Amino acid sequence: MFNINLKEFCKDIDMEACAVKLGFLANRSCIIIIYRSPSGNFQLFINGKETIIKKLCILNLHFMVRGGINTNYR
Fold first, then answer.
1. In the chain, where are the structural domains located?
2. How are beta strands 62-68 and 27-36 bridged, if at all?
């Protein structure tokens, strides 16, 4: 298990993120946890999440994204 440094994508008011890379035999996976503050900028959160996923896609991993989005879908 290896931590992936995502501190550059964390913004105090808008979002926090962390990721762990797991290696089980031939299956390489990554668990990404993303938290969005209810008072944060939603568009900044979406852009940050997209940037994180694009950065990690080059590692050729299977992803599981979890976290707290904190948004009103109405």
1. 2-68
2. parallel
On whether the CB atoms of residues 16 and 10 are closer than 8 A, the answer is: yes
Which positions ≥6 away from 12 have C-beta within 8 Å? none
Q: Give the tens place of pLDDT for each residue, 3-61.
A: 777 877 777 777 888 888 887 766 778 888 888 888 888 888 888 888 888 888 777 77
Threshold 0.90, pTM exceeds: no
Q: How many residues in total does the chain contain?
A: 74
Query: Mind giving me the DSSP string for 28-64?
Result: EEEEEEEEE-TTS-HHHHHHHHHHHHHHHHTT--EEE
